[in-house]
Here is the input.
Amino acid sequence: MKKLFSLAIVLLSIISAHAQNDPNAKKILDMVSAKVKSFTTITANFSINSVSSKGKNNGVKSGSISIKGAKYVLAQGKMQVICDGVKTYNFDGAKTITVTSLEESSQSLSPQKILSGDYAKDFVCKLIGTKAGQSEIEMKPIDPRKNFSKVNVFVDNAKSMITKAFIVDKSNNTLQVSFSNLASNKTLDNALFVFNKAKYPKDVEVLD
Here is the structure.
């Protein structure tokens, strides 16, 4: 078992070493990352459209997100996700809160991660093309443990901000994430990013 684990690490290292990003894609994403890092906070609305591998549209869900450094709060209907920079608390909108470490939650692609533009360590990126002031960049994860196979992001070149993303999972289902009402440097209280069990139903179960 140890030998298999060691081999997997070696193979992953080889893949990482040989995976090269398209310099044009990297340049655009570096600009996005620098722009985002220059903000103290970001707030935005988002919509997520789920489409099955067979083309069935499962409808659109909307929400909002507030970001402050590595911390963020995401609200979607009754559901809520709070990340305090160390742990992520995911409330299912009913009676369960699931707690995961920041490393565990990074296996998925949150709206916060999409907006960041900070993909250099995790993806191999390629510029697909530029049209109407937007660049489309295809990104494939280096780490095979990620629960998605490909992400295409669309960048507003004038603003150096990501406006939407298409996420394809390993079953070939697609999530189409779009952002609107992007605002930066608003004052956000630190208490917003602190998990407080008292704010949830009394019978809520916390799983960690």
Q: What stands out?
A: The radius of gyration is 18 Å. Helices lie at 2-18, 23-37, 102-105, 111-116.
